[in-house]
Amino acid sequence: MVYPIVKFGDPVLEREAEEVTEFDTPDLHKFLDDMFESMYAHKGVGLAAPQIGISRKIAVIDVSNGEKPEDKVVLINPMIVKVDGKQEGEEGCLSIPGFREQVKRGRNVTIRARNVRGEVFEQTAEDLLARAFLHETDHLYGKLYITHISALKRDLMKRKIKKLQRAGDWS
C-alpha cells in the first residue's frame, strides 16, 4: 500500500514520534513493506513514519533507489551515536516538495537502532547514507532539514509555502 506523504505544516512532523515497543509482528513487517513501497513510489531515498502521518520511531532508507536490495536499511528507535567530519550538499524532503537547499551535515555517522526483530545494531555510514541517517532520524524527533539552514532561507521558504497554501496548491 502506498501512503500519501504528509506535508510541512502538519503537526505530526514537528513533534517527537513514539517509541516502538513490539517487534517481529506481522503488522510491523507489513508496515515496513508499505513504507518501502511508499518511499519508492514517491521517489525518495528515505522515509520516516511521521511523513506518512504515523507517529512512530521508524524509518526506512535505500540510497540505491531499489537497485540493490542489500542496501535497504530499517531503523527502529534510532539514535545517533557519533558524527565525524563535515559534508555539504543539496537536500530535499518528500514533506517539503519543490524545495531544495544546501545543508551541512556530518560526513561519517554511527547510528544505533533496532531491526524488525527488535535486535539492537550499530551501523556506520558516510556521505549520502550518513546524510540519510541524520535526515530521517531528525524526522523522528520532530525536526526537518530546514532547521539546518539559515533563518533567512528558512523564512523565505516558509513564506513561499504559505503563499502556496493560500492558493490551494499545498495540501
Percentage of residues assigned to helices:
25-40%
Overall spatial form: globular
Per DSSP E runs of 2 or more residues, the count of β-strands stands at 7
The averaged pLDDT comes out at 96
Poorly predicted segments: none
Spatial strand arrangement across the major sheet? 1-2-3-6-7
Give the distance, in angstroms, between the N- and C-terminal Cα atoms: 20 Å
Instruction: Give the biggest beta sheet.
Output: 5 strands, antiparallel
Helix/sheet category: alpha+beta
Q: Please tally the helical runs, counting DSSP H or I stretches of 4 or more residues.
A: 3
The SSE order reads HEEEEEEEHH
Q: Gyration radius, to the nearest Å?
A: 16 Å
Strand content: 25-35%
Question: Which structural traits does this protein have?
Answer:
171 residues; alpha+beta; two-stranded antiparallel ribbon; 27% helix
Describe, in plain words, how this protein is organized in 3D.
The protein is of the alpha+beta class and about 170 residues long. Helix content is about 25%, strand content about 25%. It is built from three helices and seven strands, in the order αβββββββαα. The mean pLDDT is about 95.
